[in-house]
């Protein structure tokens, strides 16, 4: 098998993580799902908006949620169209207002 070398070419990849993450688990609270260290988005309509938004950002790949309960819905959403309307974007902004982020700089 002949290998191809790519010189003078920049390749970039974007990996999306935690597209179903909603917020951190409050200190001292129980984990709602054994495999997750955050509180996930449980509403399927909001999961749809969240993953479609993520996929519409030009990512190379999106990692599915870590708990198997969420995996089938993530696959169903990813199979459909990912375009986000301006009204949906406004809804996402409204839903995320005042929510503590998982990560901060």
The H-and-E topology, N to C, reads as EEEHEHH
Mean residue pLDDT: 88
Strand order of the largest sheet: 1-4
Report the biggest beta sheet as strand number plus sense, adding barrel if it closes: 2 strands, parallel
Overall 3D geometry?
Answer: globular
In whole angstroms, how far apart are the ends?
Answer: 45 Å
DSSP helix count?
Answer: 3
Question: How many whole angstroms does the radius of gyration measure?
Answer: 17 Å
Query: What fraction, in percent, of the residue positions are helical?
Result: 25-40%
What does this structure look like?
The protein is α+β, with helices and mostly antiparallel strands and 105 residues long. It has a domain of 38 residues. The strands form two sheets. The chain has a two-stranded parallel sheet. The longest helix is centred in the middle third of the chain and has 12 residues. The mean pLDDT is 88.
Topology:
Layout: E1 15-16, E2 21-24, E3 38-40, H1 44-55, E4 61-62, H2 71-79, H3 86-96
Helix pairs in contact: 1-2
